[in-house]
Design a protein that fits this description.
The complex is a heterodimer. Chain A is built from 17 helices and no strands. Chain A is mainly alpha-helical. Chain B is an alpha+beta fold. A four-stranded mixed β-sheet of chain B has the order 2-1-3-4. In chain B, strand 1 (2-6), helix 1 and strand 2 form a beta-alpha-beta unit. Classes of the chains: A mainly alpha, B alpha+beta. Chains A and B meet through helix 3, helix 5, helix 9, helix 10 and helix 11 of A and helix 1, helix 2, strand 4 and helix 3 of B.
Amino acid sequence: MWDAIADLLVYGLIGLEPATRAAQSVHFFVHEVLKIGFLLVVVTHLMGLINALLPVERVREAIASGRLRGAEHLAASSFGAVTPFCSCSSIPLFIGFLQAGIPLGVTFSFLITSPLVNEVALALFLGTFGWKVTVLYAAAGIVLGTILGFVLGRMGLERHVEEWVRKAAARSRETGAGRDLAVAGDPEGGGPPSPAPGGASGEGGTGPDWGPLLRRVSSEATEIAGGIAPYVVAGVAVGAAVHGWVPAGAFDRWLGEGNPLAVPAAVAAAVPMYAGASGVIPVVESLVAKGIPLGTALAFMMAVVGLSLPEALMLKKVMRPRLLATFFGSVAGCIVLVGYGFNLVF
Amino acid sequence: MDVKILGTGCANCRALEEATREALTEADVDATVEKVEEMEEIVGYGVLGLPALVVDGDVALAGRVPPPAELADLLSPTD
């Protein structure tokens, strides 16, 4: 479908000669922008809806309730995947989880997966690599968060959490403030889904008020999609240039199978690129088309999305250096392993 | 009315502050607006996401930037 529309626009409307390199690059660009734009709108709406029906306050309650017996890490990691991530939210989230009595390791499971698997990355993966790679990526992210959170939780790192955080957590557990605040976090006017039992807004239990809820989700999704649109367009433009002008196999020597250190090198190179994550993915798609192994590309993208410098700077306020280094180091290490793993399989 | 915006300076936090000031001017509500950036103080409100909006000491909204209509609603004087 996108092919036909792009054909019409590029060859018909603009009137470029299909056989030329320029036309092929322009065609690629138009095709990708249309497809990714469409998926971006759909996926941000979908994730926004999930999140509106399952706000993080409720997620915290479910994990803290102790009813998940043994599945806390998996649950926290999966919830992290459907929760939109903003690096500035990582501290309140971190402390809020600890306040509710959730163990550090389970909190880590959430914190690892949340940036790694997010609506923007998923939409871009769907648009560029198709659903198989997308599912693989999401599954790898969730499994990584689950296992790593479990392992980190066994390492007794609690004493490396900053003093004021531990005090804040303990204080609020004593007074039960965490529980009250969970309800306060529910917005009143926005039509929260099915009010909590005995909640302030309990007007019969008829479930969510769909009209305002959908309008809210839509307005937020549009905001997200619009905000990253320039990065996506820029990324696709670079990708289109690579697509048209770079010969296949051009990067083999550095990033191909010839270089055993390609995966860690790609991960290291990815860390400073956080801000443009949405622009990086379309570029990587073109690189894969030119012969870079998928595992290396996947590791690179996981690192771009999941190892964010702004997040590290934020978390420095609540974690002592040793804990911060352990946290980010192990996430980076696991991403490298995932990259090698995919390279072996594909 | 006493309005506080909790946020550390990310794009969404700035967007909420701007939208809040606009909504207050539009509705001609007499309010003091304060931006809280100190993490220890933010955590004291028990929010799980930023930015957050605190109206007269109560957390009205957390973790998102609401559409203008909802924001106007949250900022309308109750009495």
